[in-house]
Specification:
single chain; globular; 16 helices; 2 domains; Aldehyde Dehydrogenase, Chain A, domain 2; 40% helix; 494 residues; Aldehyde Dehydrogenase, Chain A, domain 1; alpha/beta; 7-stranded mixed beta sheet
Length: 494
């Protein structure tokens, strides 16, 4: 079944060369160029993606703009049915898509499978939730000085052409989290998957096509960010950009896209603050899982721990013990591997190593790990870290947790609030009231009390501030973000 279902998207060779989808056809690019996708597991070529030209992007955009109004005019219940069918197809191909994710981005089978299941559930939830969105009517006499002469009918409408740009670390789930609400609200979608993760993105596009998204309403253009990506986001027909990726890339996209609505989830260097009364066993477990899951390649990963020197001294041996149970670095295809497989590329591992080495030269101490071989970076803990060190200043997308000793909770607040990142933070304490009061002082998108940062549940609001994002995501919030209000004012004859 998978071979037949996905047959049009590649040349069926080993390794396959994948086509791009212009909204109506699966095609090879006129550029004649392809981009190899290397598996982080062993460096083998998982497949090749088309390098789509600016001219081809222009044609895709024209189709998307032409098809959008017809899609928006499609009854909502039909759009809902289409998304439910897409969710069914995602579940149907769970095994196939799981294996694809493992090979392409180096996730463990467990993590990859979880992403596929979560994506299907999320798609269904979006389709159910959109039916509860309601417009409203407003009477003019509610405002002082006005009589009953005016009525505003307020409805939600699509923006038009939405560009969806996804990251490598969740190439199915974070793609769907953009595509599905945009489609449900009546937008057409031009999807730019990441290069690493693009193969999964191409497969996801095929699922939406087969589910019944009409011609031109959804397309998938692959290629480098500097060429294909720039051509997409700077196109004059784009009405909305939704993006997940690094902060630097987010800033660059915002500058190129100009004055259009944007929903961005960008980088995060998330702290965990440990109070003296914290349950140390629970705290250690959450820090280990939060810091090392998917080799730390998550914007919600815990990157540094703040506490008094005494608290950190008490916590460290418990974390090291927990690591022996919860962490085992290795091939993600092996059932023995826990949390830490390869990072996405050898270049990423080398950058990671450089920041560790620079921080050590500035006084940090390696407690465990600190060495990479190829794409595999040992899970690493540093102590003696200060806020100005590279491992804190930069978003380190790898298995690293840094310990920063503070003399007071006020100092911890200052360190967090002075950071250019503001995605999430964790606070560990047995006194939830104290945790709540402390959380209110933190200038971040959201705070977890006695838990590690995370995106879900997916109907919770999810946002970053400062260089960590723009706008709010989460099921209802994403649906609202992918649409705008249109008031129509009826003036009664005087």
């Amino acid at each position: 079944m998978p071979a037949e279902f996905f047959e049009p998207i590649s040349n069926q060779k080993t390794p396959p060369i994948y086509a791009f989808f212009d909204g109506t056809q699966w095609k090879s690019s006129a550029s004649g160029k392809t981009i190899p996708v290397l598996s982080p597991i062993d460096g083998s070529v998982a497949g090749e993606l088309q390098s789509v030209t600016a001219t081809e992007v222009h044609a895709v955009m024209a189709k998307a703009a032409a098809a959008q109004k017809g899609w928006e005019a499609t009854p909502l219940h039909k759009r809902v049915s289409t998304m439910h069918l897409a969710a069914d197809w995602i579940r149907h191909f769970e095994e196939y898509l799981t294996a694809l994710l493992v090979k392409e981005i180096g996730k463990t089978d467990r993590d990859a499978r979880s992403e596929i299941k979560r994506t299907a559930d999320l798609t269904d939830y979006f389709a159910d939730e959109v039916q509860s969105l309601r417009g409203e009517t407003l009477d003019s006499d509610n405002f002082p000085g006005y009589d009953k002469g005016r009525i505003a009918v307020v409805e939600r409408v699509a923006y038009g052409v939405a560009v969806a740009i996804a990251p490598f670390n969740y190439p199915v789930n974070l793609s769907a989290s953009k595509i599905v609400p945009a489609l449900l609200m009546g937008n057409s979608v031009v999807f730019k998957p990441p290069t690493q993760g693009g193969i999964s993105g191409v497969h996801l596009t095929r699922i939406f096509e087969k589910a019944g998204v009409p011609p031109g309403v959804m397309s998938c253009v692959t290629g480098s960010g500097s060429e294909t990506g720039d051509a997409v986001i700077s196109h004059p027909l784009v009405d909305l950009v939704t993006f997940t990726g690094s902060s630097d890339t987010g800033v660059a996209i915002a500058q190129k896209a100009g004055m259009i609505p944007m929903v961005f989830e960008c980088g995060g260097n998330n702290p965990a603050v440990v109070m003296p009364d914290a349950d140390m066993n629970l705290t250690a477990r959450e820090i280990v899982k939060g810091g090392f899951a998917y080799a730390g390649q998550r914007c919600t990963a815990i990157k540094y721990v703040l506490g008094s020197q005494g608290v950190l001294d008490q916590l460290l041996p418990i974390i090291l013990t927990q690591m022996k149970e919860l962490v085992h670095m290795g091939d993600p295809r092996s059932p023995e591997t826990k949390l830490v497989g390869p990072v996405i590329s050898e270049h990423a591992a080398e950058q990671f190593q450089q920041w560790i080495d620079e921080s050590v030269s500035q006084g940090a101490k390696i407690i465990t790990g600190g060495i990479h071989k190829g794409n595999y970076m040992e899970p690493t803990i540093l102590t003696g870290v200060t806020p100005g060190m590279p491992v804190v200043v930069h978003e380190v997308f790898g298995p690293l947790i840094s310990f920063i000793a503070v003399t007071s909770m006020d100092e911890a607040v200052k360190i967090i609030n002075d950071s250019m990142f503001g995605l999430q933070a964790s606070v560990f304490t047995k006194d939830e009231g104290t945790g709540l009061l402390f959380a209110k002082q933190l200038n971040v998108g959201s705070v977890q009390i006695n838990g590690s940062p995370q995106r879900g549940p997916d109907h919770f609001p999810f946002l970053g501030i400062k260089r960590s994002g723009l706008g709010v995501q989460g099921v209802r919030y994403s649906l609202e973000a992918m649409s705008r209000l249109r008031p129509i004012v009826i003036n009664k004859p005087q």
